Amino acid sequence: MAARQQTIYEVKIEALVRVDPFKYLEPTVTYFSNLKRAIDTLHIVLGAQGWPSSVSYSSVYRDLKLRDYFFYTFEVEGVKYFQLSIQKRIINPHLTTLGIDEMPRPRRK
How many structural domains does the chain have? Predict the structure, then answer.
């Protein structure tokens, strides 16, 4: 039985402003199987932290349909604080031949 492919959505938040310039902040990555729930969760978290929720479901859906990714940078008074990116990922992709040709059969003598 072949494995069923499934699309999931990777939501990544990358901090652009650092409190300590010598410390690298790892991006926060979360995966969702439902785009609507990903956007709803994003609205809740942004609202709880006081950020305006300027990301709409239709704009994310449209960009994912056209380009397979969505980027948005949160900026206040010319300072970019963090960047949101949403990308499509495939679970259980179909296996390919990886560019390997079929082995030639040895000649019979």
Answer: 1
In 3D, which of 51, 39, 49 has the Cα closest to residue 80?
Answer: 51
pLDDT by position in tens, the chain (length 109): 556 888 899 999 998 887 777 777 889 999 999 999 999 999 999 999 998 888 999 999 999 999 989 999 998 888 888 899 999 998 887 777 777 878 788 877 7
Of the candidates 16, 31, 44, the one whose C-alpha atom is nearest the C-alpha of residue 88 is 31
User: Given the structure tokens 């709880």, which residue do they identify?
Assistant: 48
**Could you tell me the CATH number of the domain that includes residue 32?**
3.10.20
